[in-house]
Specification:
Chain B: InterPro entries: Beta-grasp_dom_sf, Mopterin_synth/thiamin_S_b, Urm1. The structure holds two protein chains of two kinds. By secondary structure, chain A is of the alpha/beta class. In chain B, 17% of the residues lie in helices and 27% in strands. Classes of the chains: A alpha/beta, B alpha+beta. The complex binds zinc ion (ZN).
Chain lengths: 500, 129
């Protein structure tokens, strides 16, 4: 038997790695507690200072409170009082709510359609520390809903763009606080500029970094766009004991709930088995009205603010269903925590280590960072490139081009002389294709000995392959698909051709 | 959905003498229900979200359960891709069922008993953002 000499060494390595991971999590927890205490210390020091040396806090940014004569029983700076005065005027929110908010930390995963409005409001409302996770870049065709981004950032990381906008909302917060450094019985005062802290994570959330990132925040906002991320974030929140504000939007509908809050259910309690991948539609395929995720994202900010400020009744054990077309919002009662839940249930022993090793892509049969599907169903001789197709047009080859996209896609843009037969109706509309081929052959009968060719195109080159398979089965043996569809046409042949 | 006390009343079914007399002769009840589909499930029933329907209880049965309703919906409303609605004798994973705005997990899932004018919502969970 061949033994691996490194066997026991490997075990050591994995033990050490695991210990390092555990210590890292503990470390970040301690760091979080330290920063919380530091901010408390700063705030306390400020109050002390206001009562003592009023000149230290004058900054001209807000009406100066005559500190000597004021009686302040809270830890808000004069600037915070002014900036958040409308919050403070709410009897049910007030000083305590704002003070809680300023000490809280919220992580928003995803700076897209949901994350954009959520981040804007969270940055503006005075959350102490705001984290943003996203690995993607800003694209023009997302800007109709991803309102945190500006055109200047197209092509740049969403996190960078979102953080810049959030800072522009919060940079005005010049609360000159005083840090107290005690040394040899002397109090040394020094000014620091404390703004809302925005933390950027320009990376995809994975099981390898999720524990470390999420553990540094009090509340997590799920503003992602795919099933594996939703399971992963929920599980991580359960393992770390963090409340999760979960929102989703597609087309003209939205959904919202709070998971893992105060003994309430987690995502898996509701959805123990992942849905089939065909049921997971994406905005880039199905479309989305920009304001719909906008509304859900705002509601996510609201729920996060309620939890952070300890005001009101979070949407836990209930779910909000929003239907934009019929202008209806329905709030339904959902099941509580399931004792049989594999992650948060009574008998569950789902540990941090299990979380790290869990394969969410395999579990949901979907990628964490979805890329457009690229099928390869046909042999090479049943396919041509968009450049080859262009040559055939230039050579005047007699052919018919069938566009198999849905009719509302065809209306956006199409190639000249293509006929639209959506894949869903292909079999029923074969006679139309036969007729078009016959007409083509008749008008170019003089220069062709074999019949007209049949080409099939779609948006990205997947449905066209499915259509060619179907056509060949039905006797259209010459049918071929154009590789990469209209996207490749725009990329390789006609740069000005509109893409979507 | 029935209250628990009324559910117990039903347990004596099969013993005609015990049932209130007006019901003892009725073999099949017709029930008016509102069914709603959302989160993309409406695409399986010709893009119509709200369906006001009349459903007969199965032969010899005095009540209509969610199990009965699911099979009625599959037969009468789902026009395409039935696998996107059902799996086995229940809904597929990722579909929430709400009876009068309440998760059917809380009322007994397939065994939930429906009553006249109940509103049943089938909604597919969304993942987009
Ligand atoms: Zn659970």
């Amino acid at each position: 038997m061949v033994t691996n000499g490194g066997g026991s060494g490997d075990a050591d390595v994995s033990r050490i790695l695991s210990e390092i991971e555990t210590l890292k999590v503990a470390k970040s927890d301690i760091e979080r507690r330290i920063s919380l205490l530091e901010s408390q210390l700063c705030d306390t020091a400020t109050t002390a200072n206001i009562e003592g040396k009023s000149d230290a806090v004058s900054n001209g940014y807000c009406p100066l409170i005559s500190a000597v004569h004021s009686n302040i029983n809270h830890d808000l700076t004069p600037d915070s009082v002014y900036r958040y005065s409308r919050h403070l005027l709410l009897p049910s929110f007030g000083v305590q709510g704002q003070s809680n908010l300023l000490k809280s930390s919220i992580l928003v995963v995803g700076a897209g359609g949901l994350g954009s409005p959520a981040l804007l409001y969270l940055a503006a409302c005075g959350v102490g520390r705001l984290g943003i996770v996203d690995h993607d870049v800003v694209e023009l065709n997302n800007m109709h809903r991803q309102v945190v981004h500006t055109e200047a950032y197209i092509g740049q990381p969403k996190v960078k763009s979102a953080a810049a906008t959030c800072r522009s909302y919060s940079d005005g917060i010049f609360c000159f606080v005083v840090s107290v450094l005690r040394s040899s019985d002397k109090e040394v005062f020094s000014r620091i500029n404390s703004t809302i802290q925005i933390v950027e994570y320009q990376e995809a959330l994975r099981t390898s970094n999720a524990l470390e990132i999420l553990s540094q925040y009090d509340i997590v906002v799920d503003a992602t766009d795919n099933a594996p991320s939703r399971y992963m974030i929920s599980d991580c929140c359960v393992v770390l004991g963090k409340p999760l504000v979960s929102g989703a939007a597609l087309g003209l509908e939205g959904q919202l709930t709070v998971y893992n809050y105060n003994g309430g259910p987690c995502y898996r309690c509701l959805f123990p088995t992942p849905p089939p991948t065909t049921a997971c539609q994406r905005c880039s395929d199905s479309g989305v009205l920009g304001v719909v995720p906008g509304i859900i994202g705002c509601l996510q900010a609201l729920e996060a603010i309620k939890i952070a400020s300890a005001v009101g009744e979070p949407l836990s054990g209930r779910m909000l269903l929003f239907d934009a077309l019929s202008a209806r919002i329905r709030i339904v009662k959902i099941r509580g925590r399931s004792s049989q839940c594999e992650v948060c249930g009574e008998d569950s022993a789902f540990t941090q280590q299990q979380f790290r090793n869990f394969d969410y892509e395999k579990f949901t049969r979907a990628p964490l960072s979805p890329l457009p599907l690229k099928l390869n169903l046909l042999p090479a001789d049943s396919r041509i490139s968009s450049k080859e197709y262009k040559e055939k047009i230039d050579n005047g080859e007699s052919h018919v081009l069938v566009d198999v996209r849905p009719a509302h896609h065809f209306k956006i843009v199409s190639l000249p002389n293509s006929i639209n037969v959506p894949l869903a109706n292909l079999e029923a509309r074969l006679p139309e294709i036969s007729k078009a081929l016959k007409e083509e052959e008749e008008c170019k009968a003089d220069n062709s000995d074999s019949g007209a060719s049949l080409y099939v195109i779609c948006r990205r080159g997947n449905d066209s392959q499915r259509a060619v398979q179907c056509l060949q089965k039905m006797g259209f043996n010459s049918a071929r698909d154009i590789i990469g569809g209209l996207e490749s046409w725009a990329h390789d042949v006609e740069p000005n051709f509109p893409t979507y | 959905m029935k209250s628990e006390s009324r559910d117990r009343e039903i347990e004596v079914e099969g013993c005609d003498a015990v049932l209130p007399s007006p019901f003892s002769k009725i073999r099949s009840l017709n029930m008016q229900l509102t069914l709603e589909f959302g989160g993309g499930l409406e695409l399986l029933c010709e893009s119509v979200k709200v369906h006001k329907v009349n459903v007969d209880t199965p032969n010899e049965a005095e009540k209509l359960t969610m199990k009965d309703l699911l099979s009625w919906v599959s037969t009468n409303l789902i026009k395409e891709r039935p696998e996107m609605f059902m799996k086995g004798d229940s809904v597929r994973p990722g579909v929430l069922v709400l009876v009068n705005d309440c998760d059917w997990e809380l009322s007994g899932q397939l065994d939930t008993t429906l009553e006249e004018k109940d509103v049943v919502v089938f909604i597919s969970t969304l993942h987009g953002g």
